[in-house]
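Spend some time on this chain, tokens included, and walk me through the fold:

. . .
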Amino acid sequence: MATLINGTSPETVEMMKATSNGVFQGESPLDFALPLVILQICLVVAVTRSLAFLLRPMRQPRVVAEIIGGILLGPSALGRITAYKNSLFPAKSLTVLDTLANLGLLLFLFLVGLEIDLKSLRRTSRKAISIAAAGMLLPFAMGVVTSFAFPEVTSSSGESNRAPFIIFMGVAHSLTAFGVLARILAELKLLTTDLGRITMSATAITDVSAWILLALAISLSGDRSSLLAPLWVLLSGIAFVIACLLIAPQIFKLISRRCPEGEPIDERYVCLALCAVLIAGFATDAIGIHAIFGAFVIGVLFPKGHFADAIVEKIEDLVMGIFLPLYFVMSGLETDITTISGLKSWGRLALVIVTACFGKIVGTVSAGLLSKVGLRDSLVLGVLMNTRGLVELIVLNIGKDRKVLSDHTFAIMVLMAIFTTFITTPLVMAFYKPSETTQTQDNDSYKNHKRRRKIESDEEEEQTHQLKVLICLQTVKDINPMVKIIEASRGRNKTKESFCVYFMHLTQLSERPSSIRMVQKARRNGLPFWNRKRDNVVVAFEASGNLRNVSVRSVTAISPLLTVHEDICSSADSKHAAFVLLPFHRRWRSLEQEFETVRSEFQGINKRVLENSPCSVGILVDRGLSDNDPEVASSSFSLSVNVLFFGGGDDREALAYGLRMAEHPGVKLTIVVISGPEISKSDILEAQETSLFLLDRQFLAAVKNKAAISTRFEERIMNSTEEAVKIIHEFCECDILLVGKSSERPFVSKLPVMMKMDYPELGPVGNLILMSTSVSVLVVQQYTTRNLSVVGSVSVAVVETP
């Protein structure tokens, strides 16, 4: 970006000194490069983050806020104030800011290259390839036609720029922003649907093709006084790629072998890899293409695995949080909307928007219909492919730097990129409402199919159905206690058909390019992105399934933490799960005998799942189950389980789960029936009216008749809250306690924790156990018809791993 906002070239600008002597020496920090660039970065981050927050309700990606923020800081808005421009963004400071922005862009393109797996790209389905081809060729042609409405082509003085300008316009029309599109799809819960997978695969192909065309356009936009110069640039670029293909993979593989997985990466190898990126950037810049191409090629050829993983972890936050917003702002500083004046200029803007949208949408829809995607899905696919963002700005900035695009054309194209990206989410939400069909299908299926929604059941036929449990994990440390629960829950029938476990790893969606890796579990379905490493969560649970004759499957759901409960509830409903098992949001530290919070957001997730679950729910508070290695033979497995039964549906569900565990030969079950003091006749009549009293008595009578011989029954009467604590202490000498979340017995409401519960999702008894003991506890809530499910109101897609 050589042209500055006031049109002054870098050669005529006085250079600034790096640091000042301070205000007490009579020097202003704004006259020196370092303090000024610090202030500029802080201003950029504050403005872009504030705009992103304001646009969040409209579900707009952060790139829109960053582009708008740059425009507001530039000559279109605040830049028109002379004092502001001369103080905060003087022409002599922009070379430093521009250099930092391009360095960040170079590193970002390296990270983007790390995401692309050429082997997977070759396995992309024909449907995605045809959609990508149509979604690129038609808008490219429309861009070429549109370019003839601009003075760069029509004026006689622009003959030397005519060919590169036409190509730049075609490329700018045909691009689709992969990273931005991934974020939009995730926000709309479409990323792991068939539609999302086709869109992402087609977008990847489109972007790779666009980069090749952009390299051609750059080679043509060089020194046009010699016909051989563009040819030399093109040939040198091809030679650079071939040399990298032959040399770089061998060097990186050698380094990767010296960095064993699971061990810290030596700093010198990270420095070597980053130096290779910088050298490649220097080489392509010297050739005359652009430094970002070298970084991108190195990223694509970099071996995918733990070494790449370590590099991403080290530099991604800095690049995404600081450097990349600078590039957007530099684009905004060069965007002067005031150059769009007059009927012709606004007509060109309207023409560009119409042709860009028409070419992308019509081309994609046509290919989608020919591929039998369906009209509605094809329309949504066309709107999604019309998304633009960072890559579009890169193309436009390179064109402006090469003096192929004028300030007027540049401003028009930037506004087109903002508009097409901004309308994507609203249009998709208008066209694509899968919840309507999902709800109808679900309602019809449930009319003709009885499914199991809880552990307790009066129907013998339903008890013989396969028990399906959805287990959610927050961290790797949740694996061991969950595996023990799985082993204890498999019951007496040792066939995989009797017990099926789905697990879901709860992962937050972020704005970073590594967020895309959350769909890497769907790689087998066609996404051209690499799997960083075999997920240790998957490995642990698959191993548990093989050892213990449990059918174990994984489901992948991609969402922000605010809406991940929708994924959990929808997955439980679609898989016909009878029980959802959640980990407590705090982790127990055995040595310190205290809790530490993993993430407070998970408490909200647990609460929302309890409110909306389509089946029974349990929250596991682990305080020792994970201390031992779960990978033991079933013959040596042992677990002591105590169930505290006060009465009510939740307590019956907890006891039903305990009885399921008691079928395992290694589980010892103790049932503790706790009743309150003698109650009056009116209380008995009221209890009988609600059938609560009778239900509990009938349930307990049935349990005593069918329970295993090894099951021990204890009955206790509590006359005070102190006695309740004593009873709990008496029976906490076990591996795990099972309790209901909400007891409908009047005496439970008198427990001391009822006045203030720190963890309302655990109920009064669960809170009392946490306050007065250090035993693990499973708090159970039974499904009832009043538990409203989010399924039907929200469409959630998951990918199942067989």
User: Anything to note?
Assistant: The longest helix spans residues 228-257. DSSP finds 30 helices and 13 strands in the chain. Residues 2-7, 434-449, 511-535, 787-802 have pLDDT under 50 and may be disordered. The CA atoms of residues 650 and 740 lie 4 Å apart.
